[in-house]
Design brief:
Blueprint (H helix, E strand, L loop, with lengths): L4 H5 L3 H31 L1 H4 L6 H12 L9 H23 L10 H30 L14 H12 L8 H30 L3 H31 L9 H10 L10 H25 L2
């Protein structure tokens, strides 16, 4: 038998946030994972030894030499984890909002961004091992002559924990914490600014307003966080010559006159962020409304 609307409405608010956040995360991952693969490969091209003229060249070479399935490398773990960490973000965000006194109308934008920063910081502890595994699988190239080092996520986890211990799965937590604190603050802030001020001005409401505001949130995240994301990727990828702390990676790029590499792959990140955030915010809001 199905679940009645009365049962769904009787669920605790925190459970509804978990369900709606999970639905949003899974929906977005299925849509944007191929763009994540391209972004990560472009960011770590020096590590892999495969050079690209840009994101389109990366996509073309990946399709030519490895086939369509290569765009979905490492998706299993992120797909499962997205259900966790999008629910963590939204649940943490609303929990932080509840700590403030109730006010008439929506919370002020500075409070929105503060709660977003806290939610992003909390979420970084969940997302770091997921991205460590995903990124290392993404930069394995099937067309290269050497055999693949890991066949799947579990092989990689076993290898990393054997060599570095369980805490090794959190390599890159520093730049990930900064990226997500700053980025998620901008994510929520940009979404709310667009929803409250731009959409009414241009006559948008309902789902179109949510989609456009999600686009704004996605752009806001990557504009604020992209250099830190590149540093995080270089710290995490096993074959990287930059492995070490985020500071050592940054200093290495400065010494070698390579600061421009912090923005390599920015275009594809924004292309990924636009549909990803639009779907995330829209599915989360609509699911939350459906739950009562």
């Amino acid at each position: 038998c199905g679940i009645s609307p009365q049962t769904m409405e009787g669920l605790p608010s925190s459970v509804k946030q978990v369900i709606s956040g999970s639905a949003a995360g899974i929906s977005a991952t299925l849509l944007v994972h191929p763009l994540d693969t391209i972004r990560t490969r472009v960011q770590t091209a020096d590590v892999s030894g495969v050079q690209y003229r840009g994101a389109i060249d990366c996509a073309a070479k990946t399709l030519k030499y490895e086939g369509l399935q290569a765009f979905y490398k490492g998706i299993t773990f992120p797909l499962l984890a997205q259900a966790v960490y999008k629910s963590v973000i939204f649940t943490s965000y609303h929990a932080m909002q509840s700590l403030f006194p109730q006010t008439d109308g929506p919370p002020p934008i500075p409070r929105v961004m503060l709660c977003g920063a806290a939610a992003g910081g909390i979420n970084s502890f969940v997302v770091t091992p997921v991205e460590l595994i995903r990124n290392n699988l993404m930069v394995q190239y099937d067309h290269k002559t050497e055999p693949r080092r890991w066949r799947n996520s579990m092989e990689l986890v076993k290898d990393l924990t054997k060599r570095n211990g369980i805490t090794g799965l959190w390599r890159g937590i520093g730049p990930t914490f900064l990226r997500d604190s700053i980025g998620v603050a901008s994510w929520f802030g940009s979404f709310e600014v667009c929803l409250r001020y731009l959409c009414p001005h241009i006559g948008l409401s309902g789902t179109p307003a949510l989609l456009l505001s999600g686009v704004s949130g996605g752009i806001g995240f990557w504009v604020a966080a992209f250099p830190l994301d590149t540093i995080k990727s270089l710290v995490q990828v096993e074959a990287s010559s930059h492995r070490g702390s985020a500071i050592s990676v940054l200093l290495s790029l400065v010494r070698n006159g390579e600061l421009h590499k912090l923005f390599r792959g920015f275009g594809v990140a924004v292309m990924r962020g636009i549909p990803g955030a639009a779907i995330t915010f829209t599915v989360q809001r609509k699911t939350r409304e459906a739950l009562g």
